[in-house]
Amino acid sequence: MPIPIDRREFLKLTLLAASARLAPQQAWSLAPKPLPPPATAKRILVIGGGLSGLVAAYELTRAGHDVTVLEAQLRPGGRVLTLREPFSDGLYTEAGAARIPDNHDLTLHYAKHFGLTLVPFYPDKLDRVFFLRGKRIRIQPGHEVDLAQLPFEFTPEELRVGMSGLVQKYLGAALRAMGDPNVPEWPTGSAKAYDRITMAQFLREQGGSAGAIELLELPFATTADDETSFLCTLREFWHASQEKTRYKIGGGNDLLPKAFAARLSGNIRYGSPVVRIEQDANKVRAITVQSGTQHALEADRMICTVPFPALRRVEVQPPFSEAKRKAIAELPYDPVTRVVLQCRTRFWEQEGCNGFGMSDLEQEVFHTTFDQPGTRGLLVSYMCRSAGQRAGAMDSEARLEFVSRDMEKVHPGLRDHLEGAVSKVWPADPWAGGAGALPSPGQMTTICVGIERPEGRVHFAGEHTSRLPYWMQGALQSGLRAAKEVNEAP
Protein backbone atom coordinates (compact mmCIF):
# COMPACT_ATOMS: atom_id res chain seq x y z
CA MET A 1 0.00 0.00 0.00
CA PRO A 2 1.63 3.28 -1.02
CA ILE A 3 2.67 5.48 1.84
CA PRO A 4 3.39 9.21 1.81
CA ILE A 5 6.09 10.41 4.16
CA ASP A 6 7.63 8.07 6.68
CA ARG A 7 6.52 10.10 9.68
CA ARG A 8 3.06 10.87 8.36
CA GLU A 9 1.74 7.38 8.93
CA PHE A 10 -1.81 8.68 9.00
CA LEU A 11 -1.73 9.38 5.26
CA LYS A 12 -0.71 5.82 4.50
CA LEU A 13 -4.37 4.94 4.35
CA THR A 14 -5.07 7.49 1.62
CA LEU A 15 -2.40 7.37 -1.06
CA LEU A 16 -3.53 4.00 -2.43
CA ALA A 17 -6.36 5.75 -4.20
CA ALA A 18 -4.42 8.88 -5.09
CA SER A 19 -0.93 7.68 -6.01
CA ALA A 20 -1.59 6.73 -9.61
CA ARG A 21 -2.47 10.36 -10.30
CA LEU A 22 0.36 11.87 -8.25
CA ALA A 23 3.50 10.63 -9.96
CA PRO A 24 4.28 8.34 -12.91
CA GLN A 25 5.44 4.89 -11.89
CA GLN A 26 9.17 4.28 -12.27
CA ALA A 27 11.13 1.17 -13.15
CA TRP A 28 13.53 0.12 -10.38
CA SER A 29 16.84 -1.69 -10.92
CA LEU A 30 17.92 -4.00 -8.14
CA ALA A 31 21.62 -4.67 -8.61
CA PRO A 32 24.36 -1.99 -8.52
CA LYS A 33 27.18 -2.39 -11.01
CA PRO A 34 30.45 -3.72 -9.51
CA LEU A 35 33.32 -1.25 -9.46
CA PRO A 36 35.84 -1.93 -12.23
CA PRO A 37 39.25 -3.06 -10.92
CA PRO A 38 41.60 -0.06 -10.64
CA ALA A 39 44.93 0.19 -12.44
CA THR A 40 46.54 0.86 -9.06
CA ALA A 41 45.01 -0.05 -5.71
CA LYS A 42 44.54 2.82 -3.25
CA ARG A 43 44.73 3.01 0.52
CA ILE A 44 41.37 4.30 1.68
CA LEU A 45 40.06 5.39 5.08
CA VAL A 46 36.31 5.25 5.73
CA ILE A 47 35.13 7.22 8.76
CA GLY A 48 31.95 5.68 10.13
CA GLY A 49 30.64 2.12 10.18
CA GLY A 50 27.03 2.89 9.31
CA LEU A 51 25.47 1.53 6.13
CA SER A 52 27.00 4.18 3.87
CA GLY A 53 30.52 3.51 5.14
CA LEU A 54 30.06 -0.25 5.14
CA VAL A 55 28.77 -0.48 1.57
CA ALA A 56 31.52 1.83 0.31
CA ALA A 57 34.19 -0.21 2.09
CA TYR A 58 32.65 -3.49 0.92
CA GLU A 59 32.55 -2.54 -2.77
CA LEU A 60 35.98 -0.88 -2.72
CA THR A 61 37.49 -3.95 -1.06
CA ARG A 62 35.89 -6.18 -3.68
CA ALA A 63 37.46 -3.97 -6.36
CA GLY A 64 40.92 -4.58 -4.86
CA HIS A 65 41.58 -1.50 -2.70
CA ASP A 66 43.12 -1.49 0.79
CA VAL A 67 40.31 -0.15 3.01
CA THR A 68 40.19 0.62 6.73
CA VAL A 69 36.91 1.55 8.46
CA LEU A 70 37.16 3.70 11.59
CA GLU A 71 34.07 3.31 13.80
CA ALA A 72 33.65 5.20 17.08
CA GLN A 73 31.27 2.66 18.61
CA LEU A 74 31.74 -1.03 19.37
CA ARG A 75 29.14 -2.14 16.83
CA PRO A 76 28.42 -1.56 13.14
CA GLY A 77 25.24 -0.01 11.79
CA GLY A 78 25.05 3.56 13.03
CA ARG A 79 21.39 4.51 13.05
CA VAL A 80 20.36 0.97 12.14
CA LEU A 81 19.92 -0.20 15.71
CA THR A 82 17.97 -3.30 16.72
CA LEU A 83 17.22 -3.56 20.45
CA ARG A 84 17.22 -7.08 21.90
CA GLU A 85 18.09 -6.23 25.48
CA PRO A 86 16.69 -6.02 28.09
CA PHE A 87 13.48 -7.51 26.66
CA SER A 88 12.06 -10.87 27.73
CA ASP A 89 11.26 -13.97 25.72
CA GLY A 90 13.60 -13.18 22.83
CA LEU A 91 11.61 -10.10 21.72
CA TYR A 92 13.33 -7.39 19.71
CA THR A 93 12.45 -4.12 17.99
CA GLU A 94 14.03 -1.30 16.01
CA ALA A 95 15.26 1.85 17.71
CA GLY A 96 16.46 3.29 14.41
CA ALA A 97 15.78 2.49 10.76
CA ALA A 98 12.66 0.34 10.75
CA ARG A 99 10.91 0.21 7.37
CA ILE A 100 12.02 -0.87 3.90
CA PRO A 101 9.73 0.30 1.07
CA ASP A 102 9.44 -2.11 -1.84
CA ASN A 103 10.93 0.44 -4.27
CA HIS A 104 14.15 0.84 -2.28
CA ASP A 105 16.04 -1.32 -4.72
CA LEU A 106 19.51 -1.14 -3.17
CA THR A 107 18.27 -2.12 0.29
CA LEU A 108 16.37 -5.04 -1.20
CA HIS A 109 19.40 -6.03 -3.29
CA TYR A 110 21.83 -6.20 -0.39
CA ALA A 111 19.33 -8.01 1.83
CA LYS A 112 19.02 -10.65 -0.90
CA HIS A 113 22.79 -10.59 -1.56
CA PHE A 114 23.47 -11.59 2.05
CA GLY A 115 20.66 -14.15 2.21
CA LEU A 116 18.47 -12.16 4.61
CA THR A 117 14.72 -12.66 4.82
CA LEU A 118 12.26 -9.83 4.19
CA VAL A 119 8.94 -9.95 6.03
CA PRO A 120 5.98 -7.52 6.07
CA PHE A 121 6.38 -4.50 8.32
CA TYR A 122 2.65 -4.07 8.82
CA PRO A 123 0.12 -6.75 9.83
CA ASP A 124 -2.78 -7.34 7.44
CA LYS A 125 -5.31 -8.04 10.17
CA LEU A 126 -7.10 -6.16 12.95
CA ASP A 127 -7.68 -2.42 13.28
CA ARG A 128 -5.39 0.57 13.64
CA VAL A 129 -6.19 3.11 16.30
CA PHE A 130 -5.96 6.89 16.04
CA PHE A 131 -6.45 9.28 18.94
CA LEU A 132 -7.30 12.76 17.69
CA ARG A 133 -8.50 15.66 19.81
CA GLY A 134 -9.72 13.33 22.50
CA LYS A 135 -11.53 11.00 20.11
CA ARG A 136 -10.45 7.38 19.64
CA ILE A 137 -11.00 6.15 16.09
CA ARG A 138 -10.55 2.61 14.77
CA ILE A 139 -9.82 2.00 11.10
CA GLN A 140 -10.07 -1.41 9.47
CA PRO A 141 -7.26 -2.69 7.25
CA GLY A 142 -7.51 -1.44 3.66
CA HIS A 143 -10.13 1.17 4.48
CA GLU A 144 -9.77 4.88 3.83
CA VAL A 145 -10.26 7.36 6.62
CA ASP A 146 -13.78 8.81 6.71
CA LEU A 147 -13.38 12.56 7.15
CA ALA A 148 -16.82 12.75 8.76
CA GLN A 149 -15.45 10.63 11.63
CA LEU A 150 -12.66 13.05 12.40
CA PRO A 151 -12.91 15.84 14.97
CA PHE A 152 -11.76 18.52 12.51
CA GLU A 153 -13.67 21.23 10.69
CA PHE A 154 -13.67 20.69 6.91
CA THR A 155 -15.30 22.55 4.07
CA PRO A 156 -18.24 20.84 2.30
CA GLU A 157 -16.00 20.31 -0.75
CA GLU A 158 -13.30 18.61 1.36
CA LEU A 159 -15.88 16.30 2.92
CA ARG A 160 -17.22 15.46 -0.55
CA VAL A 161 -13.86 14.44 -2.05
CA GLY A 162 -12.77 12.42 1.00
CA MET A 163 -9.28 11.72 2.28
CA SER A 164 -7.62 10.60 -0.96
CA GLY A 165 -9.31 13.49 -2.75
CA LEU A 166 -7.90 15.84 -0.14
CA VAL A 167 -4.35 14.66 -0.89
CA GLN A 168 -4.97 14.97 -4.62
CA LYS A 169 -6.65 18.37 -4.33
CA TYR A 170 -3.94 20.07 -2.33
CA LEU A 171 -0.74 18.15 -3.17
CA GLY A 172 -1.32 16.53 -6.58
CA ALA A 173 -0.43 19.52 -8.77
CA ALA A 174 2.73 20.27 -6.78
CA LEU A 175 3.88 16.65 -7.04
CA ARG A 176 3.43 16.69 -10.79
CA ALA A 177 5.13 20.07 -11.14
CA MET A 178 8.18 19.22 -9.05
CA GLY A 179 9.61 16.79 -11.63
CA ASP A 180 11.62 13.63 -11.10
CA PRO A 181 13.89 14.06 -8.04
CA ASN A 182 16.22 11.34 -9.35
CA VAL A 183 17.53 13.31 -12.33
CA PRO A 184 20.92 14.99 -11.80
CA GLU A 185 19.75 18.55 -12.48
CA TRP A 186 16.80 18.42 -10.03
CA PRO A 187 15.34 20.68 -8.71
CA THR A 188 14.72 22.94 -11.68
CA GLY A 189 12.35 25.74 -12.59
CA SER A 190 9.21 26.11 -10.51
CA ALA A 191 10.20 23.25 -8.21
CA LYS A 192 12.77 25.51 -6.54
CA ALA A 193 10.00 27.77 -5.29
CA TYR A 194 8.69 24.96 -3.08
CA ASP A 195 11.91 25.14 -1.07
CA ARG A 196 11.06 28.59 0.27
CA ILE A 197 8.01 27.50 2.28
CA THR A 198 6.71 24.78 4.58
CA MET A 199 3.86 22.44 3.73
CA ALA A 200 1.51 24.30 6.07
CA GLN A 201 2.25 27.57 4.27
CA PHE A 202 1.65 25.92 0.90
CA LEU A 203 -1.66 24.39 2.01
CA ARG A 204 -2.86 27.76 3.24
CA GLU A 205 -1.98 29.26 -0.16
CA GLN A 206 -4.07 26.52 -1.80
CA GLY A 207 -7.09 27.45 0.30
CA GLY A 208 -7.00 24.42 2.59
CA SER A 209 -9.22 24.64 5.66
CA ALA A 210 -7.63 24.74 9.10
CA GLY A 211 -8.90 21.19 9.64
CA ALA A 212 -7.39 19.90 6.39
CA ILE A 213 -4.03 21.51 7.12
CA GLU A 214 -3.91 20.15 10.65
CA LEU A 215 -4.87 16.67 9.44
CA LEU A 216 -2.27 16.60 6.66
CA GLU A 217 0.44 17.67 9.11
CA LEU A 218 -0.24 14.83 11.57
CA PRO A 219 1.61 13.32 13.35
CA PHE A 220 4.91 14.68 12.04
CA ALA A 221 4.35 18.19 13.37
CA THR A 222 1.74 20.76 14.16
CA THR A 223 1.28 23.55 11.66
CA ALA A 224 3.40 25.79 13.88
CA ASP A 225 6.04 23.10 14.42
CA ASP A 226 6.70 22.03 10.82
CA GLU A 227 10.00 23.69 9.95
CA THR A 228 10.86 21.42 7.01
CA SER A 229 11.28 22.59 3.43
CA PHE A 230 8.13 21.77 1.46
CA LEU A 231 10.39 20.64 -1.40
CA CYS A 232 11.89 18.03 0.94
CA THR A 233 8.39 16.90 1.95
CA LEU A 234 7.30 16.69 -1.69
CA ARG A 235 10.32 14.56 -2.55
CA GLU A 236 9.33 12.08 0.16
CA PHE A 237 5.76 12.01 -1.16
CA TRP A 238 7.01 11.44 -4.70
CA HIS A 239 9.05 8.39 -3.72
CA ALA A 240 6.27 7.06 -1.50
CA SER A 241 3.74 7.31 -4.31
CA GLN A 242 5.78 4.59 -6.07
CA GLU A 243 5.35 2.12 -3.21
CA LYS A 244 3.01 -0.80 -2.76
CA THR A 245 4.19 -2.21 0.55
CA ARG A 246 6.94 -2.09 3.16
CA TYR A 247 9.18 -4.74 4.68
CA LYS A 248 11.58 -5.32 7.53
CA ILE A 249 14.37 -7.88 7.88
CA GLY A 250 13.31 -11.00 9.74
CA GLY A 251 15.41 -11.26 12.88
CA GLY A 252 16.19 -7.54 12.98
CA ASN A 253 17.34 -4.86 10.54
CA ASP A 254 20.80 -4.84 12.13
CA LEU A 255 21.45 -8.14 10.36
CA LEU A 256 22.19 -6.07 7.24
CA PRO A 257 25.08 -3.99 8.67
CA LYS A 258 26.28 -7.08 10.53
CA ALA A 259 26.46 -8.95 7.22
CA PHE A 260 28.61 -6.21 5.69
CA ALA A 261 30.78 -6.10 8.81
CA ALA A 262 31.31 -9.86 8.79
CA ARG A 263 32.86 -9.57 5.32
CA LEU A 264 35.00 -6.62 6.48
CA SER A 265 35.83 -7.70 10.03
CA GLY A 266 39.60 -7.44 9.61
CA ASN A 267 39.24 -4.00 8.04
CA ILE A 268 37.15 -2.38 10.80
CA ARG A 269 38.63 -0.65 13.84
CA TYR A 270 35.96 -0.24 16.52
CA GLY A 271 36.25 2.19 19.42
CA SER A 272 38.18 4.57 17.16
CA PRO A 273 36.53 8.01 17.04
CA VAL A 274 38.21 10.44 14.66
CA VAL A 275 39.07 13.78 16.27
CA ARG A 276 41.04 15.41 13.45
CA ILE A 277 41.25 15.20 9.65
CA GLU A 278 44.35 16.44 7.83
CA GLN A 279 45.22 16.46 4.15
CA ASP A 280 47.78 17.82 1.75
CA ALA A 281 48.38 17.48 -1.98
CA ASN A 282 49.47 13.84 -1.63
CA LYS A 283 47.81 12.21 1.37
CA VAL A 284 44.94 12.39 3.83
CA ARG A 285 45.21 11.51 7.52
CA ALA A 286 42.77 10.64 10.29
CA ILE A 287 43.73 11.17 13.93
CA THR A 288 41.81 8.77 16.16
CA VAL A 289 41.66 8.25 19.90
CA GLN A 290 41.74 4.64 21.03
CA SER A 291 42.05 3.70 24.70
CA GLY A 292 43.05 7.28 25.46
CA THR A 293 45.92 7.29 22.97
CA GLN A 294 46.01 9.17 19.68
CA HIS A 295 46.83 7.30 16.48
CA ALA A 296 47.42 8.71 13.00
CA LEU A 297 46.39 6.73 9.91
CA GLU A 298 47.36 7.83 6.42
CA ALA A 299 45.70 7.06 3.09
CA ASP A 300 45.31 8.17 -0.50
CA ARG A 301 41.61 8.96 -0.13
CA MET A 302 39.04 9.24 2.65
CA ILE A 303 35.26 8.78 2.76
CA CYS A 304 33.66 10.69 5.62
CA THR A 305 30.19 9.40 6.51
CA VAL A 306 29.89 11.15 9.89
CA PRO A 307 26.51 12.86 10.49
CA PHE A 308 27.00 16.60 10.53
CA PRO A 309 26.13 17.14 14.24
CA ALA A 310 29.01 14.80 15.15
CA LEU A 311 31.30 16.17 12.42
CA ARG A 312 31.05 19.62 14.04
CA ARG A 313 33.32 18.33 16.81
CA VAL A 314 36.05 17.10 14.42
CA GLU A 315 38.99 19.41 13.75
CA VAL A 316 39.78 19.76 10.04
CA GLN A 317 43.06 21.09 8.64
CA PRO A 318 43.14 22.78 6.28
CA PRO A 319 39.47 23.73 6.83
CA PHE A 320 36.84 22.61 4.37
CA SER A 321 35.41 25.20 1.99
CA GLU A 322 33.12 27.88 3.37
CA ALA A 323 30.09 26.26 1.72
CA LYS A 324 30.84 22.87 3.28
CA ARG A 325 31.44 24.40 6.71
CA LYS A 326 28.13 26.26 6.49
CA ALA A 327 26.25 23.05 5.61
CA ILE A 328 27.92 21.12 8.44
CA ALA A 329 27.08 23.87 10.92
CA GLU A 330 23.48 24.57 9.91
CA LEU A 331 21.77 21.43 8.51
CA PRO A 332 19.08 20.39 11.05
CA TYR A 333 18.55 16.81 12.20
CA ASP A 334 15.26 15.41 13.50
CA PRO A 335 15.43 14.98 17.33
CA VAL A 336 13.60 11.66 17.36
CA THR A 337 12.98 9.86 20.63
CA ARG A 338 11.66 6.29 20.69
CA VAL A 339 10.28 4.63 23.79
CA VAL A 340 9.69 0.88 23.75
CA LEU A 341 7.11 -0.45 26.22
CA GLN A 342 7.18 -4.14 27.19
CA CYS A 343 3.70 -5.44 27.97
CA ARG A 344 2.85 -8.65 29.80
CA THR A 345 0.25 -9.54 27.16
CA ARG A 346 -0.76 -8.26 23.75
CA PHE A 347 -4.04 -7.08 25.25
CA TRP A 348 -4.84 -4.79 22.32
CA GLU A 349 -5.29 -7.80 20.06
CA GLN A 350 -8.10 -9.07 22.29
CA GLU A 351 -9.94 -5.85 21.44
CA GLY A 352 -9.36 -6.45 17.72
CA CYS A 353 -6.52 -3.92 17.30
CA ASN A 354 -3.13 -4.64 15.71
CA GLY A 355 -1.12 -2.20 17.86
CA PHE A 356 -0.39 0.31 15.08
CA GLY A 357 -1.71 3.85 14.95
CA MET A 358 -0.95 7.40 16.02
CA SER A 359 -2.10 10.23 18.20
CA ASP A 360 -2.14 13.99 17.83
CA LEU A 361 0.01 14.01 20.92
CA GLU A 362 2.65 13.71 18.19
CA GLN A 363 3.50 10.06 18.43
CA GLU A 364 3.33 7.24 15.94
CA VAL A 365 2.64 3.82 17.45
CA PHE A 366 4.21 0.56 16.25
CA HIS A 367 3.67 -3.01 17.36
CA THR A 368 6.78 -4.58 15.87
CA THR A 369 6.42 -7.94 17.64
CA PHE A 370 3.11 -8.92 16.00
CA ASP A 371 4.97 -11.65 14.06
CA GLN A 372 7.21 -12.76 16.94
CA PRO A 373 6.31 -15.76 19.13
CA GLY A 374 5.07 -15.53 22.71
CA THR A 375 2.37 -13.71 24.62
CA ARG A 376 4.33 -10.59 25.55
CA GLY A 377 4.53 -7.67 23.16
CA LEU A 378 6.47 -4.46 22.55
CA LEU A 379 4.70 -1.20 21.71
CA VAL A 380 6.91 1.57 20.33
CA SER A 381 6.21 5.28 20.69
CA TYR A 382 7.92 7.14 17.84
CA MET A 383 8.15 10.87 18.56
CA CYS A 384 9.82 13.40 16.28
CA ARG A 385 10.42 17.12 16.13
CA SER A 386 9.03 19.01 19.15
CA ALA A 387 7.58 15.90 20.83
CA GLY A 388 10.86 14.03 20.38
CA GLN A 389 12.82 16.99 21.69
CA ARG A 390 10.51 17.38 24.69
CA ALA A 391 10.50 13.69 25.58
CA GLY A 392 14.24 13.38 25.04
CA ALA A 393 14.93 16.18 27.52
CA MET A 394 13.04 14.37 30.31
CA ASP A 395 14.64 11.99 32.76
CA SER A 396 13.75 8.33 32.20
CA GLU A 397 11.05 8.25 34.88
CA ALA A 398 9.28 11.38 33.61
CA ARG A 399 9.57 10.14 30.00
CA LEU A 400 7.94 6.82 30.87
CA GLU A 401 5.10 8.63 32.66
CA PHE A 402 4.62 10.96 29.67
CA VAL A 403 4.59 8.19 27.06
CA SER A 404 2.57 5.63 29.01
CA ARG A 405 -0.08 8.23 29.86
CA ASP A 406 -0.50 9.09 26.17
CA MET A 407 -0.30 5.46 25.03
CA GLU A 408 -3.07 4.60 27.49
CA LYS A 409 -5.40 6.79 25.44
CA VAL A 410 -4.53 4.91 22.26
CA HIS A 411 -4.62 1.46 23.90
CA PRO A 412 -6.68 1.58 27.12
CA GLY A 413 -5.39 -0.89 29.70
CA LEU A 414 -1.74 -0.33 28.87
CA ARG A 415 -0.71 0.55 32.40
CA ASP A 416 -2.24 -2.62 33.81
CA HIS A 417 -0.02 -4.68 31.48
CA LEU A 418 3.16 -2.53 31.39
CA GLU A 419 6.31 -4.25 32.67
CA GLY A 420 8.99 -1.72 31.75
CA ALA A 421 10.42 0.53 29.06
CA VAL A 422 13.61 1.38 27.15
CA SER A 423 14.33 4.69 25.38
CA LYS A 424 16.55 5.78 22.53
CA VAL A 425 17.09 9.54 22.41
CA TRP A 426 18.77 10.17 19.06
CA PRO A 427 19.72 13.84 19.58
CA ALA A 428 21.62 12.76 22.71
CA ASP A 429 23.60 10.14 20.77
CA PRO A 430 27.09 11.70 20.39
CA TRP A 431 27.76 9.85 17.12
CA ALA A 432 24.44 10.79 15.46
CA GLY A 433 23.00 13.98 16.94
CA GLY A 434 19.58 13.14 15.52
CA ALA A 435 17.69 10.57 13.48
CA GLY A 436 18.05 12.07 10.01
CA ALA A 437 18.67 15.26 8.06
CA LEU A 438 15.61 17.50 7.54
CA PRO A 439 16.40 20.67 5.55
CA SER A 440 14.62 23.84 6.63
CA PRO A 441 12.94 26.17 4.12
CA GLY A 442 15.51 27.64 1.75
CA GLN A 443 18.24 25.09 2.51
CA MET A 444 17.70 22.58 -0.31
CA THR A 445 18.51 25.21 -2.94
CA THR A 446 21.37 26.75 -0.92
CA ILE A 447 23.48 24.85 1.61
CA CYS A 448 22.37 21.41 0.37
CA VAL A 449 23.52 22.09 -3.19
CA GLY A 450 26.77 20.19 -3.67
CA ILE A 451 26.68 18.86 -0.13
CA GLU A 452 28.07 15.58 -1.46
CA ARG A 453 31.04 17.09 -3.35
CA PRO A 454 34.57 16.06 -2.31
CA GLU A 455 36.89 18.44 -0.49
CA GLY A 456 40.32 17.61 -1.85
CA ARG A 457 41.01 13.98 -0.94
CA VAL A 458 38.00 13.76 1.40
CA HIS A 459 34.79 12.37 -0.09
CA PHE A 460 31.39 12.41 1.62
CA ALA A 461 28.63 9.85 2.11
CA GLY A 462 25.72 9.31 4.49
CA GLU A 463 21.96 9.66 4.19
CA HIS A 464 22.32 13.45 4.55
CA THR A 465 24.26 13.59 1.25
CA SER A 466 21.74 11.50 -0.72
CA ARG A 467 18.50 12.05 -2.62
CA LEU A 468 16.74 9.93 0.01
CA PRO A 469 17.77 11.34 3.38
CA TYR A 470 16.55 9.56 6.50
CA TRP A 471 16.48 6.12 4.80
CA MET A 472 18.78 3.09 4.59
CA GLN A 473 18.37 3.38 0.82
CA GLY A 474 19.80 6.90 0.92
CA ALA A 475 22.77 5.74 2.97
CA LEU A 476 23.48 2.93 0.49
CA GLN A 477 23.08 5.25 -2.51
CA SER A 478 25.56 7.72 -1.06
CA GLY A 479 28.08 5.02 -0.14
CA LEU A 480 28.06 3.62 -3.66
CA ARG A 481 28.43 7.11 -5.15
CA ALA A 482 31.42 7.90 -2.93
CA ALA A 483 32.99 4.51 -3.67
CA LYS A 484 32.71 5.20 -7.40
CA GLU A 485 34.31 8.63 -6.94
CA VAL A 486 37.23 7.16 -5.01
CA ASN A 487 37.67 4.29 -7.44
CA GLU A 488 37.90 6.72 -10.35
CA ALA A 489 40.04 9.31 -8.57
CA PRO A 490 43.70 9.68 -9.61
Describe the protein's architecture and organization:
- This protein is α/β, with parallel strands linked by helices and 490 residues long.
- The protein has 3 domains: 9-25 and 146-245, no CATH class; 43-75 and 254-332 and 439-488, 3-Layer(bba) Sandwich (FAD/NAD(P)-binding domain), CATH 3.50.50; 334-428, Polyamine Oxidase, Chain A, domain 2, CATH 3.90.660.10.
- Helices cover 30% and strands 20% of the residues.
- It has 15 helices and 21 strands.
- It has helices at 15-22, 51-63, 105-113, 156-177, 199-205, 210-217, 230-240, 255-264, 308-311, 322-330, 347-350, 385-392, 396-410, 414-417, 472-488, and strands spanning 43-47, 66-70, 82-83, 93-94, 100-101, 118-120, 127-132, 135-139, 246-249, 268-269, 274-279, 284-290, 293-299, 301-304, 315-317, 337-343, 353-359, 363-367, 377-383, 418-425, 458-460.
- The strands form 5 sheets. The protein has a 7-stranded mixed sheet with strand order 8-7-17-18-19-16-20. It has a 5-stranded parallel sheet with strand order 10-2-1-14-21, covered by helices on one side.
- A hairpin with a 3-residue loop joins strand 17 (353-359) and strand 18 (363-367).
- Helix 1 packs across helix 4, helix 2 runs parallel beside helix 15 and helix 5 (199-205) packs antiparallel against helix 6 (210-217).
- 50% of the residues are buried.
- Mean pLDDT is 91; it is low at 1-10 and 12-21.
